[in-house]
Amino acid sequence: MKPLQFFSLLFFIGFLFVQGCAVDPAVEPTKQIEFTVPSGWPQPQYKFENNEVTQAGFDLGKKLFFDRRLSRDNSVSCGSCHQPFAAFAQPDHDFSHGIDNRLGERNSPGLFNLNWHTGFFWDGGINHIELQPINPIQNPVEMDEKLDNVISKLKNDDTYKAMFKSAFGDETINSQRMLKAMAQFMGMLVSSNSKYDKYVRGETGGSMTNVELKGLNIFRENCASCHTEPMFSDFSYRNNGLMPSSRNDSGRGRITRAPEDIYKFKVPSLRNLKYTAPYMHDGRIKNLEAVLEYYATGIHHSPTLDPSLQNGIQLNPQDRSALIAFLNTLNDEEFVRDARFKEEL
Amino acid sequence: MFSFFLFVCLGSCRKKEDPKVIVDPNGKDTLGKVSFTFENMAGSMPLDTAKWYLTENGDSLKVNEYKYYVTNFVLHSGSNEFKEWESYYLVDHNKPASKTFIIDSIPHGTYDKISFLIGVDEKRNTSGAQTGALDIENNMFWDWNSGYMMAKLDGVSPQALVSSQMVSYHIVGFKMGESTIRKVTLNFPAPLEIKGTVIKNIHLKSDLLEWFKNPNVVKIAETAIIGNAGEAAMSMADNYADMFTIDHID
Questions:
Q1: Count of other CB atoms within 10 angstroms of residue A40
Q2: I want to staple A68 with a disulfide (CB 3.0 to 4.6 A). Which of A77, B84, B115, B155 is the partner?
Q3: Virtual CA dihedral for A165, A171, A172, A176, nearest 10 degrees?
Q4: Residue B55 or A101, more confident
Q5: How far is B40 from chain A (nearest CA, A)?
């Protein structure tokens, strides 16, 4: 390319930039919502690049999240198995019920602090928060719908037309906009106001008892190498020694096809455990006491077992109680009661 | 730096339709267009989903669905090149309109070859929800293991040792070590001059039977289904990497 052509092209691009991004005066600018990284936390993976959060976009994402029309027979929404009062998990279910009462294959995890995740689902198969909702929508045992059908349903709804216009400037409804709006809602689900958080920040409401502080030390000595503060996960994939069930779910191994990844699952955050029982990728353990007993005596040895668990985690009864007392300081009551995240009825 | 600027500009403008207006900052036309037409072939015959074909190994094949991504078009002029900014096309055999498209805003000049990718680059496999040819609604995205199918061939063969004699090649893999992205470079039969308002039409042919040969002969009895990244998918991508030819330009 000759210099003159190069500069004329550059000029042309500059022109497009100005033209393409000029604010259309007919469209009311919608109120931006600020996403703040809690103090002391690392920078998130997802910073809403090309998807600035606005009140209209968040509201649209929330409506979609709770809309049962995302399923084939309009019976199941994302919120059916991810309930706000349960930190967006589903309490008391090892596997959630999808459409026609079909059972899922993994435990429905809590949804919070998702912008820090490096991969989605227990196996990390999906690499971006905006692409996460497609699988549950299309999975035959969850919502069993096709994304293009969902888009057709939305296009036939005047409320959605108006909401897409508010969020994105015109009435165009497509999967990209739908998924970006859902990412706005899901990405704003930040849980950072547990007693532990207030303790770390030195705020009122953050005074820990001696037992809880003892538990914190036990946690740091025995658990923190995988459940790293402040996310309480390093978001790596590890085999924590669960005996494979008859389903023989190979977890991360199915994604990478690497023998060394068989039976590995994403390390879950330990935040909000009070609301998200039962535990483990298949919900096989019902309470925290049983989890600690499992780590002491239940670990199944296999070639991919995590090296840190070769001898299990041996704690005496007092230490177990202290650890559980500490884990309970990670419950974020403000998060599960947050009115912004509740389904509009 | 330059390409980064482009990316920022496109990213920030995504809420709008891509501007199609040609501006002329120098008071004379400096940008032109070229159109592309893809014709899918089976050997020397135009591909017909009602007909049976013989592969290199002598297997019979009838095709139901045939789609592939062609992306990241670059026109080369000696050592200079013009890259299309938002360069993603999905050729779907069952949708005739998908086989023709226009690339515009090409600086006037004489070009000697073209290159493009078969498949979707790593960047767009890792950047979240996309639109246009990359819209999830096109059913070319895997929802359980991130990534686009680069190419897809579904059909039937009596040699397929699976129920319903299904043949299904869904070619995925964008990561290092399992990439099925293949670059195609084709010389123009004669230098292509882009100037004024004349739109040249480049007619490309792609031979579907290349999927089954050169360098790897595919036996449908052994490989009727490819549904994951890995050796089989990369081997198939190596085969179809040379399926394109420029038939003529008019």
A1: 11
A2: A77
A3: 20
A4: B55
A5: 26
Max CA pair span of chain B: 65
Size of interface A-B (CB pairs under 8 A): 119
* A185 and A200 share one domain: no
Predicted local distance difference test score (pLDDT) of residue A28? 52
Chain B residues with beta carbon closer than 8 angstroms to that of A9? 31, 105, 107
Tell me the domain boundaries of chain B.
28-249
Q: Does residue A177 lie in a domain region?
A: yes
> Given the DSSP bridges, would you call strands B200-207 and B166-171 parallel, antiparallel or unpaired?
unpaired
Regarding whether A101 and A72 lie in a shared domain, the answer is yes
Beta bridge partners of A239: A305
Q: Which residues of B touch A12 (CB under 8 A)?
A: 23, 25, 31, 105
Tell me if B105 and A174 make a contact (CB, 8 A cut-off). no
On whether both A149 and A232 belong to a single domain, the answer is no
Give pLDDT, residue A105.
87
Output the average pLDDT for chain B.
Answer: 90
Do A201 and A329 share a structural domain? Answer: yes
Encoded amino acid at A223, one letter: C
What's the domain range around A64? 55-190
Query: Among A215, A192, A197, which Cα is nearest to A207's?
Result: A197
For residue A204, being part of any structural domain is answered with yes
CB-CB: which of A8, A151, A175 is closest to B30?
A: A8
Per-residue pLDDT band for A24 (boundaries 50, 70, 90) equals very low
**Which residue among A1, A12, A183 sits closest to B80, beta carbon to beta carbon?**
A1
- Confidence bin at A98 (pLDDT 50/70/90): confident
Whether pTM exceeds 0.95: no
For residues A282 and A95, give the distance between their C-alpha atoms in angstroms, rounded to a whole number: 7
Contacts of B6 in chain A (CB under 8 A): 13
| Percent of chain B whose predicted confidence (pLDDT) is above 90 | 85
pLDDT at B250 over 50: yes
Put simply, the answer to whether B15 touches A169 (Cβ < 8 Å) is yes
pLDDT greater at residue B9 or residue B155: B155
Q: Do B128 and A180 touch (CB under 8 A)?
A: yes
Q: Please tell me whether residues A118 and A157 are part of one structural domain.
A: yes
| B42 φ/ψ angles, rounded to the nearest 5 degrees | -125, 100
Shortest CA gap B98–chain A (Å)? 18
CB–CB contact A176 B131 (8 Å)? yes
Q: What pLDDT does B29 receive?
A: 65
B192 DSSP β-pair partners: B111
